[in-house]
Amino acid sequence: MARGPVSLVSQLGEERFSYCFASDDTTTPLLFGSSASPSPQAASTPFVNTPSPLYYLSLQGISVGATLLPTPNTTFALQPNGTGGSVIDSGSTFTLLTDPAYAMLKQAFVSQMNLPVATVSGYGPCFSLPLDPGGVAVPSLAFHFDSADMDFPAENYFLVDPSVHCTWYIFIALGLAIFD
């Protein structure tokens, strides 16, 4: 789906495509050409104009619960020298963030979870769960793009593993990479 000459879009001779990233189990179509217009109720964000074959989005910020992370405006921006930026990749299952943004995200979850932080090698942060985790409230997570917000269901960024009795977050909902 990239912008290069061997991509599916280029080989079909289409200049437009539309693919909706639903935040639930909804099946969404992949549309090409003139039918590639989002429905009126869908939120959409434009690609950042760049000569790169990758698709860049204008990520403006991230919220955990009601807290907008205090990331500087340049954190997610594509720089004039071609570095930085936010790339959307529908073939990737993980979201990668730069260290400053990831550190802020971790701290926001730690401060809002109201659970003891546990140490589990390879994961983090990890929280010790009570015997009955039914009352545990997981803070919401939203990515704010130019003219659209993407709210994630908790199961897309928190994983409960009873074998280690803790919860940690793993981003799997949106293939988004933020480059330094």
Could you outline the blueprint of secondary structure elements for this entry?
Blueprint: H1 8-12, E1 17-19, E2 30-32, E3 47-48, E4 55-57, E5 59-64, E6 67-68, E7 86-88, H2 99-113, E8 117-120, E9 123-128, E10 141-145, E11 148-152, E12 159-161, E13 166-168, E14 176-178
Antiparallel strand pairs: 1-2, 3-4, 4-7, 5-6, 5-10, 7-14, 8-9, 9-13, 10-11, 12-13
Name of the CATH first level of the largest domain? Mainly Beta
Q: Briefly note the structural class of the backbone.
A: mainly beta
Oligomer: single chain
Cα-based radius of gyration, to the nearest Å:
18 Å
Shape assignment: globular
Query: How many strands appear in the DSSP assignment?
Result: 14
3D architecture notes:
One of its GO terms (cellular component) is extracellular region. Residues 1-180 form the Peptidase A1 domain. Keywords: Hydrolase, Protease. InterPro entries: PEPTIDASE_A1, Peptidase_aspartic_dom_sf, Plant_Aspart_Prot_A1, TAXi_C. GO terms for molecular function: peptidase activity. The protein is mainly β and 180 residues long. It has 2 domains: 1-40, no CATH class; 43-178, Acid Proteases (Cathepsin D, subunit A, domain 1, Beta Barrel). The chain contains 2 helices and 14 strands, in the order αβββββββαβββββββ. The strands form 4 sheets. Strands 3-4-7-14 form a 4-stranded antiparallel beta sheet, with no helix packed on it. The protein has a 4-stranded antiparallel beta sheet with strand order 6-5-10-11. The protein has a 4-stranded antiparallel beta sheet with strand order 8-9-13-12, with helices on one face. The longest helix has 15 residues, at 99-113. It is globular.
